[in-house]
Amino acid sequence: MKMMGSNKKRVSSRLGGILKEHKARIYIIRRCVVFFRFVLEIVHV
């Protein structure tokens, strides 16, 4: 029974790591989009 609990913890921590990485990627992409929109606004003015 103890192995089942530790296995679940391992899976959930792995999923948590993947989720954190995904959130970080989305954050970086969003920042890049905002930056490029800002640059394009300056160029067109």
SSE layout:
Elements (H helix, E strand, L loop, with lengths): L1 H43 L1
Protein architecture, described:
With 45 residues, the protein is mainly alpha-helical. The protein has one domain. It is 96% helix and 0% strand. The protein contains one helix and no strands. It has one helix spanning 2-44. The chain is rod-shaped, with a radius of gyration of 20 Å. The mean pLDDT is 86.
- Work out the helicity level: over 70%
Helix count?
Answer: 1
Strand pairing plus helix content: what structural class?
mainly alpha
Strand content: under 5%
DSSP strand tally? 0
Rough outline: rod-shaped
Computed Rg: 20 Å
Largest sheet: none
Regions with pLDDT < 50 over 5+ consecutive residues? none
Number of domains: 1
- Report how far apart the termini are: 67 Å
Mean pLDDT across every amino acid position: 86
N to C succession of SSEs: H
InterPro entries: DVL, DVL/RTFL_small_peptides
Subcellular location: Cell membrane
Membrane topology: Single-pass membrane protein
Family: Belongs to the DVL/RTFL small polypeptides family.
